[in-house]
Every structure is written in structure tokens, then in C-alpha cells.
Amino acid sequence: MTDFIYSQPVKIYFGTGKRKELGAVLSELGIRRCVLVCGHHFLPEAEKLRNSESRICAVFSGVEQNPQLSGAIETVALAREFQADAVIGIGGGSAIDTAKFAAATALGDGDLLDYYHGNLAFPTERLTIIAMPTTAGTGSEVTQVSVISHGKEKRTINNPAFMPRAAIVDPELTISVPPRTTMNTGLDAMAHALEGYWSKNHQPISDLMAIEAVKTILQNLETAFRNGEDKEAREKMAYASLLGGLSFALPKTAASHACSYPLSEDYHLPHGEACAFTLDSFVHINADERLESLCRAVGLSGTDELAERIAGLKELGGLRARLSDLGEVDLDKLCHDCAVHPLMNNNPVRMDEQALREMFEALK
Ligand code: NAD
Known about the structure:
This protein is 50% helix and 13% strand.
């Protein structure tokens, strides 16, 4: 066996109703004042939470999909005004990543744009991060990643400063996710598991979680999509999303995520849909004995069936899957931008612009 170093510092509270333990978690962490960050969908709940939990001093509810740096700047202003010692991110990856960026920078005296561009090191002192996912997809609650946009530019920033202290994963929070977002986010979790597994930096403990995540998603995503009220399917998807996050946290993602950035930036696909766009293609491209053994472990005959199942889920969810679905495509730019994305280096099969062109041509 190859040597590995495994580490996972986030305390995870998982289970239906666990959101009600937020107060106990704040006490355990010694939090006195905090800012809550969420998207619009959660605002009514956030107001209720604020009324029942006096340590929540302020709510920033302006998070949009592919969150902008401006949201973190507003959150930092609130954290400073109320002298908060923690930021709670409740929402999909967009809200959690905004909370992470704000918590990591609030105690610094630099411009947030300088931290964003890597011109300034993150401050050594930071606010505590508590993450409560309301989608089953990103796994952001257990990663040291924050994905933030500034204008059209979308950056994945990887820094230990973004690691939450606690993740409260309550599957009931995902019941209200609309079907199409359920499919997008569920396939994002699938991409995390598969890419963590086939990443050049894969390792045994992460592999085990990836296999379990893929199996659980194959068994439950369609049910969660068709019937969002199905508590068991939502519970299993929340678990699979958490496992997906853990399975890519150390190995990092690879080619599908690399391609997702230009697909989101230039063609405005939501993150999960952008990752799913090429995921079945990369199952074929990256097919090898290891991937065949994952397929057998999850009850499939092989990589062809895995690719078919992913394509079937995309079709069921009405996700865009062909270049013609994207409008006018600049194929030269798309292939170039995908090829130069740093995550492409993690893919087990080398994908240069020509190889990417062949893949995208087959999706015409
Ligand atoms: P999202 O957070 O953008 O949410 C998608 C939409 O669903 C939003 O309109 C949101 O308001 C709504 N929504 C969320 N939860 C809901 C609920 N329970 N009920 C009703 N509506 C709800 O989507 P996402 O896929 O969770 O996150 C995507 C973002 O996370 C992207 O920016 C992506 O790059 C990033 N990401 C981060 C990591 C990480 O490790 N930090 C990993 C993967 C992706």
C-alpha cells in the first residue's frame, strides 16, 4: 500500500432535527456573538432563529448562486459592527462559502480583494465557522475550500482558514429544495465522490467514502428528485453529500470540476449542472481497472453502466447535456479555459485542448 496522511478536523453533527442543537453547539464552542449568512429562501427561518437565539446578532441574507465577494464584504462589516466571534453559514454551498470567506478575513486589516487574489496572506486570527447545509451537494461543510466570484471571475480558494469548526447536517433542511436543484446538487455530490476516487491524489480512506457515496446516490437521488418529501431519500442524500465532501476534501476534484468553471462563467450553468455536463464523458475517458472495481462495488456491471446511469439522471432532471443546449459556443475558448484550469492536472488521464475538443465534439 502507498503511504498516506488523513486528517478531518470538523466536528460533524448529523441527523434529522439536529438543527435544533445549534444553541448547544454555540455553547460548546464558547460563542458569544455571531452573524448568520443565508440565501433568500432561508430568510423567514433565519428571522425565527434570531428571535430564539440571542447570540445571533445579525443576518446577511443576500447570498446569490455563484456568490459574489460583495456578500462576504457585507458579512465582514456586520461581524465587525457586532464584534462577532463566529459566522454561521446556513444554505447551499453559496451561503456556506460566503460565511467561510467572511470568517477568515474579518479580523484582518487588508482589503478583501487582496485576500481574494492571493496578494495578501489570510490573517492568522479568524472567526469560528459553523456550517449547516440546506442542499445535498457541495460538502462545503467539511472542506477548506471557498468558491467566490468577483464579477465574472469565479475562484476556488483553498486555505485551512476556511475549515469549519462544526458542521450541523440536518437532512430536513433539504426537504424544500426544488427538484431541478435536487438533481444538480446530487450530481455535484456524485462528481465529488468520483473525482476524489480517480484523482491522482486519491487515498484509501477517501476511496471508501467515495464508493459509499456513489452507491447511496445511485440508490436515492431519483427518489429525492421525484418526491422531495421522502424523508429517507433526503436523509440518504444528505449523508452521501457529506461523504462526497469528505472523499474529495484531501484528494481534490479533477477534470469535470475543471470544466465546470468555464461552463458556469461563460454559459451560466449552476455549479452541479456544470459538473454533471462532462461527468459521464469522463467516466468513459478515465475508465480503468480501479474505476471498474468501484462500479462492481456499487452493484453496477462496469463503467459503461455508470456513465449511462449518470446520463439518465441528467435527462430525468432536465439538465443541459449537449453543446447545442448552451447557445452559441466558443469551442476554442472553452477547450483552452478547461485545459488550463489547475484541477485538470489532477485528472488521471492527461486532457489537453485537443483531447477536450474531441470530448466536446462528441457532445454536439
Ligand atoms: P446554492 O447554494 O447556489 O443554492 C442553489 C439554489 O438553491 C439557491 O437559489 C438557493 O437559495 C436555493 N436553496 C438552497 N437550499 C434550499 C432549500 N433548502 N430550499 C429551497 N431552496 C434552497 O447551490 P449549491 O449547489 O449548494 O452550492 C453551489 C456553490 O457551492 C457554487 O458556488 C460552488 O462552486 C460551490 N461549491 C463549494 C464547495 C466547497 O467545498 N466549498 C464544493 C462544491 C461546490
